[in-house]
Design goal:
9 helices, elongated, single chain, mainly alpha
Length: 178
Amino acid sequence: MAKSTKTQILQSFSELLKNNDLDKITVTMLVNECNISRQTFYYHFTDIQALINWGIQQNTAGCLESVKNATDINEATVIYLSSIKNNCFFLTKCLESSLSGRTTIRLRDSIAEYISYFGNEILKISNLPSEDAKFVCEFLSNAITGLILSSIYQNKEMDIHDISDKIERIILGRLRIQ
């Protein structure tokens, strides 16, 4: 029940985002929109910031879970980026707020987790020396985060299949050759 209440609060928050700046949304507005008590809100979240952090985590963690059954890195990347794209409104609102730095870090951390998972599972980056594997994961995480942020800030459509193909062919393909 707690997860569904948290999800309901997040959904109501997302509804409020459609007509309000993130920094202007208050707990009062949220509990009225969600039709819950303040006590219920504070049972689940310490403040709006905690809700936003959880929302970003939910929007990005779901991406990683959805790719674990992919047959290859290309399919996984398409699924992952599609999931990010589907949650783009929430992420964009967070990036337009005073939370842009935290949002960027959380997005990057999610991508790092994704890269690390597939680096170990599919690419066998673990065969690389530890320092090199860490560098590859960090480099790719920052690069993909940059691509996502660039498309959001420039308000342009991300060509997910093109990005996935390039990551697979140009970057990851070279790692497999070693």
